[in-house]
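check this one:
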Amino acid sequence: MPANPKYLTQSKWQRFAKITAAILGGYFVSISFHLALAAWFNRANILMTMAFSGFILWVALMVVAFLAKNGWKIWGIYILITLFFSLFIYLGQTYNPIAK
């Protein structure tokens, strides 16, 4: 049974924003989250765990992107979250460098 057209996104730009936010934005948030964890905790364990939990987080962020009303707001939220995790990556590498 096809979806009711009144519930689908009418704007092609909104559809484009949701699809790209789901795929790219969700990926950036997922990877930056795990790299931020790896900057503070045991790198090998976090990166091995990322192979599984990263995919699960990415799929969850895809679902969130498609549930949102505005694709551009989701893009903004995902960019802010990625920048926030990037700050933790920077601080983690500053205070916990790999080579001591």
Summary: Residues 32 and 86 are 6 Å apart (CA to CA). The chain has a mean pLDDT of 89.
